[in-house]
Amino acid sequence: MNCRAYSRTHSVETRSRFEVVRITEMVESVVRESGIREGYVLVFVPHATAAVATNEYEPRIVEDYISWVRRVIPPGAGWRHDEIDDNAHAHIASLLIGQSRILPVSEGRVLRGTWQEILLLEFDGPRRRSVVIQVCGT
Ligand code: ZN
User: Fold this and answer.
1) How far is the centre of ligand 1, averaged over its atoms, from the C-alpha of 99 (Å)?
2) How far is the CA of 83 from the centre of ligand 1 (A)?
3) Helical (H) or strand (E) element with 110
4) What are the structural domain ranges in the chain?
5) Maximal C-alpha separation, the chain
6) Can you give the pTM of this predicted structure?
7) pLDDT on residue 2
8) Running along the chain, 138 residues long, what does each successive block of 10 average in pLDDT?
């Protein structure tokens, strides 16, 4: 594919230590601006204590995502990194969930399922987070 690239960086202010922010509309608007019809979009956070995922955004499941992270990777559970930075759980959650996702773009739209919102996951907020959105295609 002869690829044309279009890239934008937006920022998101998170308000609490753990938070799930829906960024679907932000990503879809960059795809529309790009004019790219066929290709893919990369969503990336240049941060070591946040993550990007696609899944349902509904208040109870959002609480469940956070509960799951707290249970599996409890903050302050004797992690070595906490000796210097007090956020080891956030690094590990970011490592496991991942700092980027790639979604297909077809007919100028992001291809996603009904329950697949694009989510920024904050594990060490509140902070100002950058979201890099890169569309590539024709
Ligand atoms: Zn750290």
Assistant:
1) 15
2) 10
3) strand 109-110
4) 4-137
5) 50
6) 0.96
7) 72
8) 90 98 98 98 98 98 98 98 97 98 98 98 98 98
Question: 134 is written with which tokens?
Answer: 């890169």
CB atoms within 10 A of CB 12: 18
Evaluate the CA torsion angle 58, 94, 97, 92 in order and state its sign. negative
Kindly give the distance from the C-alpha atom of residue 13 to the centroid of ligand 1, in angstroms, as a whole number.
19
Separation of CA 127 and ligand 1 centre (Å): 13
Answer yes or no: are the C-beta atoms of 63 and 9 closer than 8 Å.
Answer: no
If we measure between CA atoms, which residue out of 94, 101, 96 comes closest to residue 51?
Answer: 94
- Rounded Cα gap, residues 54 and 49, in angstroms: 17
| CA 56 – CA 116 distance, rounded (Å) | 5
Which amino acid does the sequence have at 62? V
Closest Cα partner for 121 from 55, 73, 37? 55
Give me the CATH topology for the region 4-137: Jelly Rolls (2.60.120)
pLDDT of residue 1: 57
Place of tokens 């969503």: 43
Residue the block writes with tokens 């979604």? 103
pLDDT of residue 63: 98
The C-alpha atoms of residue 35 and residue 21 are separated, in whole angstroms, by 25
